[in-house]
Write a structure and sequence with these properties.
54% of the residues lie in helices and 5% in strands. By secondary structure, it is mainly alpha-helical. It has one domain. Strands 1-2 form a two-stranded antiparallel ribbon. Helix 2 crosses helix 3. It is globular. The model has no long low-confidence stretch (mean pLDDT 87).
């Protein structure tokens, strides 16, 4: 799959999930747990119901991971 390929955002697509994991590991080695990446991937897939370029999907997953990661002090968002 090339980045110019249009993909359907299907969370059950194993090849697409492998591409997402490879992209995250290449850009941010060891930074995000697989469960967090999977959660972001599924959220992006749920938000889109039509084909989009693979590069756009990968970017959306990266952004979702960055915006939903725990705070640096380890507290949950909204905790006192």
């Amino acid at each position: 799959m090339t980045s110019e390929t249009s993909v359907f955002p299907d969370p059950s697509d194993d090849d697409l999930w492998a591409a997402v994991r490879a992209d995250m590991e290449k850009r941010f080695p060891g930074r995000y747990p697989e469960a967090d990446v999977r959660r972001a991937f599924e959220a992006v897939c749920a938000a889109h119901d039509d084909y989009l370029p693979q590069a756009a999907l990968l970017k959306k997953v990266r952004m979702a991971c960055m915006w939903t990661r725990p705070s640096l002090d380890g507290r949950a968002e909204g905790a006192e």
